[in-house]
Amino acid sequence: MRREHNRLREILSLAVLAVTALALSSRVFASATDGTIDATNRYAWSENVGWIDFGSTEGNVHVTDTALSGYAWGENVGWISLNCSNDSSCTTVDFKVTNNGNGTLGGYAWSENKGWIDFDPTGGGVTINASGIFSGYAWGENVGWISFNCSDASSCTSVDYKVSTDWRPSSARTTSSSSSSAQAQSGGGGGFRGSPSQMAARIAQARVTILARFEGKRKQSEELATAEKNSAGEMAQEERAAQEREARIAKRIAEHEAVVAQSQKEQEELQKKYALHREERYAKALALQEEQLAEQQAALLAEREALQAEQDANRSRREERLKEQDQRTAQQILAEKEEEIREEKAAKEREDRIAVRIAEHEATVAQSQKEQEELQKKYALHREERYARALVLEQERAAEAKTALEQEQLALEEEQKKNAELRKQRIAERKAQEEQERTSPQPPTTPRQPPSPEVVAARRGRLFALVGDVPVIFGDVSLDEWYAPYVSYVVEEKIATGYADATGKPTGEFGVANPVTYAEVLKMALETAGADMSGLPPPRNFSAKGSWASAYVAKAEALSLVVFAPGLDVQKPATRGAVIQTLLEVLGITIGKTPATYEDVPKNHPYSTAIAAATFFGLVQGDLDAEGKPLNRFRPDDPINRAEVAKIIALAKELLHQ
């Protein structure tokens, strides 16, 4: 912290020496009732934003019995307005830093970058003692505490700073008090138009005027485009309507044909579906019947084989008994014979039963075949009946749909015929009108014409302007871009007209993104100032000799413009700093001696003071980040494009009109 304070004290000391040396050229006198800020004791300190200068010449701070006025400046804050009267904005927002006459301050100051700063906050407050020395703290939500005296934090042994004034509280004044003086910078360059605050206010008003002028032009172009669109010929509208109706009819006919084709396709699929289902059902029933018959036949065959086996067994036993019969007695033979008769009778009975059962089986097979034939006939009958009923129903539906479609098609054809008749009638009327126009000695009162370039430009959202008598649509200047109002202004004021081809015909390109050359910016500046270009000798600058820029460079040499040295190549892109220097010199806008405070603009840069003046007056601003916050960079040695130069030129030209 002590190292930082030592460094700040060194910077402050150098600043004080520079201000003192530069302030010898003029004096601004003040008094105990209307004081200014001391040329040495002029800085307040904020831990968050650094030094704040209350004593700059451009800021012109005054202290009276009722209020403070003018501007304070901080490198990281920008300008801080102490009173709404600085730019005549009190009717919009009434604010000021107040003074109760005894040195107790209150009220608010305003910074465009940091917002409100309270001079009588809770826990703080700023006062001016009988010696004109400020003390205490002000508070800003975005800057934190601002200390007006190193004694506030007992840090004077490290960094000695304070703000003081030659104003005195009413209680400390004497009748013999004499006025004291404060040193101030004198501005360089001629043509200073009022105080810095007045100049800034006038440039702000110029910006408002340019934007309002462009907005009126854009609305007029939009109204023309709308009117042209609404005034399209009635015949063309009818023709489009007829074409739309015919297109709808053709579409509906195509849809009708598609529906008919779909209906036929569905009918064929229905027939295939019923045939397939019929064959499937018949095949299933037949297969089931055949399975049942096969099972019955297998059972009968098994039973027949069993009977045959039994017969074979009986026959074998009979042969055995016959062999044994020879060896038995008559009685035994008789008994055996009886037994044999019984067995034969039983066998016969069994054979009879088998024969009955075989007959029954054959009858069952015959019945099964009969039933199978009847089943086939029944399924065939049911299938034909179902198919016939479904087919009849489907045919009825198809007939109804066909009738409806035919009726609709007839209506469509009728409408198509009507449209054809209307078209013939329109063609006949058009031919009659053309014949009348051809034979009539007077031209038609409302001939159809193509849209004007102004209407075309409005349709495309591009800038339209007259370059001389030639209507031009600038294809690279969108009406929605920030630079459109300024490009429109410089073209209408004939300061810059964009590019032209070899024959001098405008190409419709302004070149907004192209870097401006030294010759181009010089021409625009001199045209804006209305410089007298007569009676000029040839230029000493070799790069300008024999070119369109010859007279302009000769004028720059006659005016001793800083930038245009004999060795400068005027056809090369100009740097941002050189453009600002040239514009301010030619237009007579004050260039002071205060250097710019951008971090990339050294104080000894040849155009530093011009950049500082243009920034203060609102003609330019440094780079911004994506959120629109200042980056405290200006890039003085980089090229500058034609859109940026158009903005500066437009503001300066409008300022000259005021």
Structural account:
This protein is an alpha+beta fold. The protein folds into three domains: 183 residues, no CATH class; 196 residues; 187 residues, no CATH class. The chain is 51% helix and 13% strand. It has eleven helices and 17 strands. The strands form three sheets. Strands 2, 3, 4, 5, 6, 7, 8, 9, 10, 11, 12, 13 and 14 form a 13-stranded antiparallel sheet that branches. Strands 1-15 form a two-stranded antiparallel sheet. A hairpin with a 5-residue loop joins strand 8 and strand 9. It is elongated.
Structural class category:
alpha+beta
- The H/E string reads HEEEEEEEEEEEEEEEHHHHEEHHHHHH
CA(first)-CA(last) distance: 51 Å
Count the DSSP helices: 11
Helicity, in percent? 40-55%
Q: Largest sheet at a glance?
A: 13 strands, antiparallel
- Could you say how many structural domains there are in total? 3
Task: Categorize the overall geometry.
Answer: elongated
Unreliable stretches (pLDDT < 50, length at least 5) are 1-30, 175-193, 441-448
In what range is the share of β-strand residues?
A: 5-15%
Question: Could you provide a short overview of the structure?
Answer:
With 658 residues, the protein is of the alpha+beta class.
Strand and helix map with partners:
Blueprint: H1 2-22, E1 27-29, E2 34-46, E3 50-53, E4 62-64, E5 67-69, E6 71-74, E7 78-81, E8 97-99, E9 105-111, E10 115-118, E11 125-128, E12 134-140, E13 144-147, E14 163-165, E15 181-183, H2 196-230, H3 234-325, H4 330-439, H5 453-460, E16 462-467, E17 470-478, H6 484-492, H7 518-529, H8 550-558, H9 576-587, H10 608-617, H11 642-657
Helix pairs in contact: 2-5, 2-6, 2-11, 3-4, 6-11, 7-9, 7-11, 9-10
